[in-house]
Design brief:
mainly alpha
């Protein structure tokens, strides 16, 4: 037996009549569109962050045998 499905106002939804009239497909379309828009925005933000990281990254502060000394000598705030 299927669990009962309720709308946000607490009324029980009859899934059989909604599927017969085609309302279920109409309800899914906005959700799918929002999911696609959200995924595109997420990947655009990720690509922007990666691009900015590549453009402004200074490898001399992160790599090399004296890198920890250079980072420690900078005026970075100390966590306590």
């Amino acid at each position: 037996m299927r669990p009962a499905i309720f709308d946000p106002f607490g009324e029980r939804l009859d899934l059989r009549s909604a599927q017969e009239t085609g309302c279920a497909a109409a309800r899914r379309r906005p959700v799918r569109t929002r999911r696609i828009i959200g995924a595109v925005l997420f990947w655009a933000l990720a690509a922007g962050l990666i691009t900015a990281r590549g453009a402004f990254f200074d490898p001399s502060t992160a790599f090399g045998p004296d890198a920890p000394a250079r980072v420690a000598a900078s005026q970075a705030p100390v966590l306590r």
